[in-house]
Design brief:
5 strands, mainly beta, single chain, globular
Length: 68
């Protein structure tokens, strides 16, 4: 994935197949040392699907994710 453009409300990404994806940024959760994670909620401009992406320290994330 390659970030092509981004501002506070929008981002454009090129995937490994060369397809361009555009997203509306609905909410941004910056990294904090307290939570040890960060996240972003986006809406796909083509499909209207809303997705939450979260990244964090393994020790924190393994408590949040179920094995199944």
């Amino acid at each position: 994935m390659l970030l092509l453009d981004r501002n506070d409300n929008y981002m454009k990404i090129k995937d490994s197949n060369g397809n361009i994806h555009e997203y509306e940024i609905l909410e941004n959760f910056p990294f904090s040392s307290e939570s040890k994670r960060m996240g972003i909620i986006v809406r796909d401009k083509e499909t209207d699907n809303i997705t939450l992406y979260v990244k964090g320290a393994e020790v924190v994330m393994e408590k949040k994710v179920r094995p199944d």
